Amino acid sequence: MIKKTFRVGEGIVGSVAKQGKAILLQDAEKDRRYVICVHGTKSQMTMPLKAGSEVLGVILLGSYEVEKFKNKDIILLNNIAGEIGLAINNVWLTRKLKEEKESVVILYETAKQLAESIDLDDVAEIGVKRCQLSYNRC
Questions:
Q1: Which InterPro entries did the record assign (predicted)?
Q2: 125 FRET partner, CA 20 to 30 A, in 45, 68, 92, 98?
Q3: DSSP letter (8 states) at residue 6
Q4: Are 78 and 100 in contact (CB under 8 A)?
């Protein structure tokens, strides 16, 4: 049976996801954790994809040749995975900053309107409208 998805801890891919550490196998079929993804795979590099210390996924490269990958290949894959993780983290941070900016703008506009109003009914209406706006954003 060929598997396409793995639970954390299942197979080599799941082990890498759980432990957050790369695995280089020169003959994957000899590893007790090996689960067939592609028939005939021999050498396999499996690398966690991380943003900070959080594992987001796993990169898997395989070959039909035994002893295809060398230590320099796993180092290169580690560097590539690190760059991908940084890019994902940057996208996440950019989204968070955008959300925070939107919240600050709403807060600023509300404070400005409240400061300009001296009527208690106007203040209450501004507060209710801003609460509805904030609620609808969630």
A1: GAF, GAF-like_dom_sf
A2: 98
A3: -
A4: no
- Is residue 118 in a domain? yes
What pLDDT score was predicted for residue 8? 82
Pair 23, 47 in one domain:
yes
* pLDDT for the residue 138: 54
Terminal alpha carbon distance of the chain: 43
Number of domains comprising the chain: 2
Task: Indicate if 25 and 66 belong to the same structural domain.
Answer: yes
Measured CA distances, 9 to 33, 42, 49, 97 (Å): 10, 21, 15, 34
Residue 35 and residue 15 share a domain: yes
pLDDT in tens, 48-100: 999 888 999 999 999 999 999 999 999 999 999 999 999 999 998 999 999 99
Closest C-alpha among 86, 65, 26, 73 to residue 47: 73
Tell me the pTM. 0.66
**Domain carrying residue 88:** 11-95
In a domain, 48, yes or no: yes
Give the count of beta carbons closer than 10 Å to the beta carbon of residue 63: 17
The answer to whether residue 9 scores a pLDDT higher than 90 is no
